[in-house]
Amino acid sequence: MNGYQRVKEKKKAAIKNGAFSLFAERGVKDVKIEDIAATAGVSQVTIYNHFGSKENLLSEVIKEYILEKYEEFKAMLLDKKTFKEKIEAIIFMKIEAARLHPDTIAAMLKESNLNAFLQQFQEERFIPLLIDMFDEAQKNGEVNPAISNEMLLFYLDIFRNFPQEKFMALMRGDKIQHTKEIMQLFFYGLSVPPENK
């Protein structure tokens, strides 16, 4: 990579970082190209030259964010953690994702190309990792082997697909206590945990 290309990539990275911060904090509608340009320290023309539109920039930024979170998730699953610790890590990832502005999440789901990417990514990468995690937990005696992968995925989806805005409102309270309660509901439902009997 020559000097010109390095400068070009540096500017592109600054634009994406600035855009992500603004989208996460203020949503998509309230962020203008001029805001992103000011945050990134570049001209509006530079942004249009690199991305063409705010929608294309949003798409690229979100795809990178998802790939980054996927790599974190994959590394966490390969770590020698218990099934319970892995589920707790998934819940904390949900908490982190809930910090994104609701308008940004809505834009992600509305934009057809991005929505298709999310769907394909989930089916081809995320779900196979979850199934591997469940299989390992069943072999280790941490999860009931009589429960199918389909039912385990359905059960996890109940927690994963809880509306972001409601989840974020819940976490504005006692985050540590609420996380403990989510963990208890996940593993024991409404019954009393064995250690509390």
Automatic annotation (TrEMBL):
Domain HTH tetR-type: 9-69
Keyword annotations from UniProtKB, A to Z: DNA-binding
DNA-binding region extent: 32-51
UniProt keyword Heme, yes or no: no
Gene Ontology MF terms in the entry: DNA binding
Presence of keyword Transport: no
Pfam families listed in its UniProt record: TetR_N (PF00440)
PROSITE patterns for this protein: HTH_TETR_2
Protein name: TetR family transcriptional regulator
